[in-house]
Amino acid sequence: MSTANGPWIIGLIANLSYLVVLASLATLGFALLCIIIARIRRALVGTQKIGIWKGRPNRVGTVLWCLVLLAAGAWAALPVAPMIKNSVVTPFGQSLGRNHPPTSSSSSASAGNPSATGRRESVRLLLCNLGDRYEALTPLWEAAQRERADVILLAEVNPPVASAFVSRPEVEDEYPFAEVVRREMSWHMAVLSRWPLRPIQFNQTDFEHFKHLFAYRRSLYVDLPSGSRFLLAGIHAPSPRSAETWAMGNETVSLLIQCTLQYLLPTGFPVIVAGDFNSTPSGYRYRAMKQESDLHSADDVARLSGTWPAGLPIGPLRLMLDHVWGSNDVRFESCRVLEDIGSDHRPILVGFTIPANPH
Hints:
Helices cover 35% and strands 21% of the residues. By secondary structure, it is of the alpha+beta class. The longest helix has 27 residues. The N terminus is likely disordered. It has a six-stranded mixed sheet. It starts with 7 loop residues before the first helix and ends with a strand.
């Protein structure tokens, strides 16, 4: 990623750029409304020129400026076009048809069995940035039960909080397989699953420069009861709030892309990469993933909504910073932002299917 050490403010602006869609459309609508009002007033008072609309050049300039804003908004909207489309095709606040809760035939209990066609299996992944909030543990557990999550990935979690959640008796009963990823930095990851987890092994000597990101149980095989398997990799890219974290986060995503292409995809198993990228769909990191990683995003089946800040009630005004990506053999069926559980990020639930043929 050639701009990994570029001005961090560019990253911050790019992260917020999809809000230009709302701002530019609002500005354009206001400007056109002013033009209409001015024309009506001129019709009522004769040929008198009024206010800022005196003379044709000013009117033309205003229209051109509005078109520039609209073009900027359209450019920013391109990555979120599927989300906007999904938000428009159904009434706001209602689930898309493919986002409905699982029926008994697609519940977690039968997720390890082939689908109706006998060729695909269903998985439900709950992703959450939990931080250091003990008070969010019970709501998180309730959300996992309500949504029948098969796998839980805590992309950024304080070590004591992760241990407190994993060691709960009810959690251990429901998710008997768990890995708490420890690293030198203060933030950990945790993966909990109904099915066995197995760390991926890299024997190549040139893997050393990926080690701090993807070794130490950051990349795990998830073994379904039928014998099918997929590879799950978790990530947390630092927020671009300073030049240092901007460069660090970009480097994290750059290494993720390299690791995906060189090590994860060549395994031949379906690949899921999930975590807190601290990037909206119009942001630099997201665009790099879309263009370079050979993965596709679950956002394509989501409505326009966001995960941060969790307390903001209007979904389109929140930033979508948490994402799930899949290889070509992964078919995303649903992606929903869930209710506020007390963390600064809202969790998301992603439903997907993988080929049912055991390896």
